[in-house]
């Protein structure tokens, strides 16, 4: 279970996120909210990317106190990922495999499923934004995370890739992986059956 | 049509100086900030006499001037390639001589910081009756500006000018993680890297050639300290690169100590050329190892301090203070005390600030 306790995020004196308590059980979640409501900030905090006040933990593993162990349990994919131009997708896949102690067979399957096999050995500087997005999704799925946070996963993806991504999420979900997604585009609920969370008034509400 | 040249000056010219403000600040710091105010004139006169009296020195300085002009060329090419700046193609409507003179004027404007210093060198040369050297320097500048104007004119003759790119250096794949940093330096910051290493080498060689009665390894370290100060821009570029392109690392399960070791390894590799230079100059391996760890530690500390605040002005100030303190400690032969202190402080700063840093989204 992903727990937030007295989590606050401020920029200067401006309070952006204020979550007194929140418990998210394993599952498939869609975090909705207006632009600038703080959806991405919540995912970035839970992904260990940005500092915050308060506590976030999965089970008994606390993000601040057991930073490495916690990060083993979560993956995060950015809405508009940026990677160095002169390395290749292959370099990053190698790196993620080694750091996340991932099964290389599964990584290779992901490469094939998401469809980056034809270009991932080229330097990232030669990729289109859609290709970079696909690479970032592959990287998010590498490893044995309990929670995968996908921030705007549908941005720049073509329709065929969106369907592949939906199937992949469902396959991983069946294996026990939980997801929290943000998206401005309506996620196909029947296909997906995600529980809706609403980001409003600086906090997260169950719908 | 001259108005196009003026327009280009106001757009590309101004943009160039805005974009490179940090670079100029750094060069200004190197030229005028590291020397006591009372010694600035004698320092620069020594430098100029060195350029005028040594063919090798003059050759190397000419290479640096040419590199700067290549940097200008790359910038203007990139500027013209973006759609909204295609107005420069109107220069093609001018006669060849007018087109050439317009472009010459543009490159002259961008080359101005160099030309101001060059005019001082020429004045000194004439004063010293070194007319040959003065003529070589003047002709060299006429030549490189003419070549840049001609090449650029040829480039914009095409209706759809492509962006000029430096040749890229692809390392053998797969690239291990710490090499991501060096890869960006080699591919995206060639001029900064080359200039820094050239300055660093000059400083080390210059100090080691100070005539002394007996062998003294401290001269090498003192020279290296100038080299380390010259690396301030490189450190800032690497830290900025990390913030822009390696944010994903924060999500990965890597312990703080491992992250620190990998960062230290980056600077360990970066300072290897200077250490090889020391070995070639017959300094014993154990001493070189100590000096190498010292140099690496100073750069890692400068990098780690940037996790507290990513501010170039304060970074330059910090590097300067670190340089001054280190200079004193080396003079008093206690640099090894600083070696332990620097590494300890670097790790403390890293541990305290790595996860706490965030660029203000505004």
The Cα radius of gyration of chain A reads: 17 Å
Major beta-sheet overview of chain B? none
Could you spell the SSE succession of chain A in H and E letters?
EEEHEEHEHHHEHEHEE
Query: Class by helix and strand content of chain B?
Result: mainly alpha
- Share of helix of chain A, binned: 25-40%
Sketch the topology of chain B as an H/E string, one letter per element: HHHHHHHHHHHHHHHH
Mean pLDDT across every amino acid position of chain A: 91
**Would you identify the regions of chain B where 5 or more consecutive residues have pLDDT less than 50?**
none
Overall mean pLDDT of chain B stands at 83
* β-strand amount of chain A: 25-35%
Please report the total strand number of chain B as a whole number: 0
Low-pLDDT sequence parts of chain A: none
Structural class of chain A: alpha/beta
Number of helices, where a helix is a run of at least 4 consecutive DSSP H or I residues of chain B: 16
Percent of sequence in beta strands of chain B: under 5%
Summarize, please:
The complex is a heterodimer of chains A (207) and B (362). With 207 residues, chain A is α/β, with parallel strands linked by helices.
Model description:
The complex is a heterodimer of chains A (about 210) and B (about 350). In chain A, about 35% of the residues lie in helices and about 30% in strands. With about 210 residues, chain A is of the alpha/beta class. In chain A, helix 4 (about 105-115) packs antiparallel against helix 5. Chain B is mostly helical and about 350 residues long. Chain B has helices spanning about 1-20, 20-35, 40-55, 55-80, 95-110, 110-125, 130-155, 180-190, 190-210, 220-230, 230-245, 255-270, 270-280, 285-305, 310-330, 335-355. The longest helix of chain B has 27 residues, at about 55-80. Chain B is globular, with a radius of gyration of 23 Å. The mean pLDDT of chain B is about 85. The interface of A and B includes residues 68, 83 and 139 of A.
């Amino acid at each position: 279970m992903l727990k937030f306790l007295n989590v606050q995020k401020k920029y200067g004196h401006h309070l952006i996120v204020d979550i007194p308590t929140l418990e998210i059980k394993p599952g498939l979640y869609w975090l909705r909210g207006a632009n600038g409501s703080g959806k991405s900030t919540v995912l970035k905090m839970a992904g260990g990317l940005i500092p915050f006040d308060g506590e976030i933990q999965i089970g008994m593993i606390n993000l601040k106190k057991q930073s490495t162990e916690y990060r083993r349990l979560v993956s995060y994919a950015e809405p508009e990922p940026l990677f160095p131009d002169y390395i290749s997708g292959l370099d990053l896949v190698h790196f993620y495999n080694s750091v996340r102690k991932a099964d290389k067979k599964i990584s290779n399957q992901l490469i094939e499923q998401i469809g980056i096999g034809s270009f991932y050995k080229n330097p990232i500087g030669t990729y289109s934004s859609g290709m970079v997005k696909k690479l970032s999704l592959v990287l998010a799925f590498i490893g044995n995370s309990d929670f995968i946070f996908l921030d705007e996963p549908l941005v720049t993806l073509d329709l065929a890739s969106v369907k592949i991504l939906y199937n992949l999420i469902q396959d991983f979900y069946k294996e026990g992986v939980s997801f929290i997604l943000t998206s401005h585009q309506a996620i196909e609920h029947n296909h997906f059956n995600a529980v809706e969370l609403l980001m409003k008034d600086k906090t997260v509400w169950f719908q | 049509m001259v108005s196009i040249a003026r327009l280009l000056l106001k757009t590309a010219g101004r943009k160039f100086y805005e974009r490179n403000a940090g670079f100029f600040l750094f060069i200004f710091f190197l030229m005028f900030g590291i020397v006591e105010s009372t010694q600035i004139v004698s320092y620069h006169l020594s430098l100029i006499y060195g350029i005028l009296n040594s063919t090798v020195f003059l050759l190397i300085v000419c290479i640096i001037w040419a590199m700067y002009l290549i940097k200008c060329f790359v910038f203007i090419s990139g500027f013209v390639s973006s759609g909204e700046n295609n107005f420069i193609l109107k220069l093609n409507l001018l006669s060849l001589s007018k087109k050439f003179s317009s472009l010459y004027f543009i490159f002259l404007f961008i080359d101005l910081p160099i030309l101001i210093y060059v005019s001082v060198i020429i004045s000194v040369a004439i004063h010293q009756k070194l007319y040959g050297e003065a003529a070589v320097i003047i002709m060299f500048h006429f030549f490189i500006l003419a070549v840049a104007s001609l090449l650029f004119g040829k480039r914009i003759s095409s209706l759809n000018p492509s962006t000029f790119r430096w040749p890229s250096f692809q390392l053998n794949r797969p690239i291990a993680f710490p090499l991501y940093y060096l890869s960006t330096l080699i591919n995206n910051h060639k001029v900064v890297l080359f200039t820094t290493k050239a300055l660093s080498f000059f400083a080390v060689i210059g100090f080691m050639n100070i005539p002394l009665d007996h062998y003294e390894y401290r001269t090498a370290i003192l020279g290296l300290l100038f080299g380390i100060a010259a690396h301030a821009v490189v450190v800032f570029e690497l830290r900025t690169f990390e913030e822009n392109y390696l944010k994903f690392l924060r999500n990965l399960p890597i312990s703080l100590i491992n992250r620190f070791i990998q960062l230290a390894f980056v600077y360990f590799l970066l300072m290897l050329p200077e250490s090889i230079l020391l070995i070639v100059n017959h300094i014993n391996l154990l001493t070189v190892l100590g000096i190498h760890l010292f140099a690496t530690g100073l750069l890692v500390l400068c990098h780690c301090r940037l996790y507290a605040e990513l501010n170039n002005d304060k970074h330059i100030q910090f590097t300067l203070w670190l340089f001054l303190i280190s200079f004193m400690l080396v003079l008093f032969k206690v640099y090894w005390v600083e070696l332990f202190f620097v590494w300890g402080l670097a790790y403390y700063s890293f541990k305290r600030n790595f996860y706490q840093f965030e660029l203000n989204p505004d």
